[in-house]
Amino acid sequence: MTFLDQMKKRRSIYSIGKNVKLDQAEIEQIIKDAVKFSPSSFNSQTSRVVILFGQSHDTFWHIVRETLRDLVSADAFEATNNKINAFAAGYGTALFYEDQDVVKSMQEQFALYADNFPVWSEHSSAIAQFATWTALAEVNIGASLQHYNPIIDEEVARTFDIPPSWKLRAQLVFGSIEAPAGEKTFIDDAERFKTFT
Ligand SMILES: Cc1cc2nc3c(=O)[nH]c(=O)nc-3n(C[C@H](O)[C@H](O)[C@H](O)COP(=O)(O)O)c2cc1C
What we know:
By secondary structure, the protein is an alpha+beta fold. Helices cover 50% and strands 18% of the residues. It has helices spanning 3-9, 24-36, 54-71, 74-88, 100-109, 116-138, 153-160, 189-192, and strands at residues 16-17, 47-53, 92-99, 141-146, 166-177. Strands 1, 2, 3, 4 and 5 form a five-stranded antiparallel β-sheet that branches. Residues 8-175 form the Nitroreductase domain.
C-alpha cells in the first residue's frame, strides 16, 4: 500500500472493541515511532504522549464520565454515557500533550519567532496525532479523535502524574474495528485547490 492508500484507510471508527491482534508492546512502539518521526518546528519535539491500556484506559474513561455527569443535564447524560461506553469498549487511549516549558524555551531562544511557537506546537501535535491515527489504521486498529480537554485535565494530571507543563490537546481512542466508518463526502476540488503553471 502506498502512503496515500494508508491515508485513505484511516477513518474515524466509533465502533471499537478489544479484539486486537497486536500486543500492547507492539502498539506502544507504533505510537512512539509515529510521534518520534513526526516533524516539529526547529525539531523542538514538543509533543508528549501518554499511552493507556487495560485498567488505566478504564480509569481515564471513568474520569471523563464522572466529569461530564457533573456538567451535563440528566436528560443529555444518557447519550453522553452511551458515547463514553463506546470509547471505553476500546483497547486503549493515547493522550496527546504539548510541553509548554519547551514552547517557552523556544520563544526565549528565538525571540523573532516568539508568537509562532505556540501555533507551531499545535501544528506539531496535529501532525503527530494524524501520523499515529494513520499508523494504527495500517495495522487495522480503528480510532477516533476526542477532545474532552480542558474539563478533564486536572483530574487526569493527578491520576497519571502528568507534569504541570504538559497541556492536553487531544485523545485518540483505539481498538479493533467492530463496524466500518460511515460514509464520507468531499467538497469539490475546485473549491479547495488552485494550480498555476
Ligand atoms: C482537528 C480535529 C478535531 C476533531 N475532533 C473530533 C472530536 O472531538 N470528536 C470526534 O468524534 N471526532 C473528531 N474529529 C474527527 C472528524 O470529525 C473526522 O475526522 C471527519 O469527520 C472526517 O472523517 P474521517 O476521520 O472518517 O476521515 C476531529 C478531527 C480533527 C482533524
